[in-house]
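Support request, please re-run this one:
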Amino acid sequence: MQRNTVISICKALAIILMVIGHAEAPDVINLFLYEFHMPVFFITAGYFFSLRYLDDEATFVKKRFKGLYVPFVKWSVFFLIIHNWMFDLGILNEQYGNWTGGVTHPYTWRQIQQNLWTIVTAMGGYDQFLCGAFWFFRGLLVASIAYLIIYKGIDALIVKTNRWQSRREWIVPIAVCITMLLLAGWKTLWGLRIITLIQGGYREIMGCFFFGVGFLFRKTEQHYRVTWWTTAVFAVIVYLFSKYLTANMNWRSTFIQFISLPVPAVCGFLMTYNIATWINGREGMVKRFLIFCGDNTLPIFVFHIISYKLVSLLKIWYYDLDFAQIGCHMVIHDHAKDDAFWILYTIVGVGVPLAWTWCYRRIKTSRQTPSS
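Re-run finished. Output below.
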């Protein structure tokens, strides 16, 4: 498929919003962006799903494992190895933790081994205080493979019954999305868990639904028209849900939170797509940066939390705080709702991983280029 820079910009906007959300921005901003920023990643992934994989499942699964499982294991193990060292450096401690009061502790040798097993076998066991966004790797891997399997199953059923053949290309993806919504509703209504999935499977089920939304959007994209007034309408809808029916992809979502999520999430994606389309039509530094950002979301996922620590050092100096507060997860909570440090956290959380990526690639390219 031809490269779509609009979708790259969508991913960039979503990853920036994720970093803002983790930086303890004002509540009105956080509630708004949490309605849709993670669903956008699943929708943009589903956008690129191809029906050719229905007859080439092995290639699809291999690509998913290479792009999601391998980096998850690599970086989870890396942070597992340095976890106790972070305590020695003071980056982590048992005094300061997350906003709910939870803290982390050094691992015993047995815990290290168990976490390693969980990382490899269940895509769990990652360092919650340094890898807080890593659930996404498991969520997208399971959601995308589940979408392929369920799509094939429903498609085979239609072929077998010899009904709706002329409308298969629409009936099947719509049926997959409806199926996932029904499963999510059943799960949240009765508080059920998929015991073979870390955190119970809600994120994977909803991720599969949003993956399907992305595939359906691509099928209708040529008929979709970007306008300023629809962008405003979508923004208002997301805001109203964030104010009166708050929801996000929290793995502990209730039934009410589940039924409150699909509409603002899809509207949030369309709002993001509209903005991305507008940016894509204007050449300049902003467009180039966002395309680069959208094409390199992985290092931001992996390193934005550890990059926050640089800003935490500055905040400790500015407010004369206890140095141990650098161990706060994800950012220092003192004054978080009163100041604008969340802006600096965002700039560094996005900028440092991207700068490192850019420099690494420049150095790698220069070494590979033969001298004249």
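The two ends are 37 Å apart (CA to CA). The CA atoms of residues 311 and 344 lie 7 Å apart.
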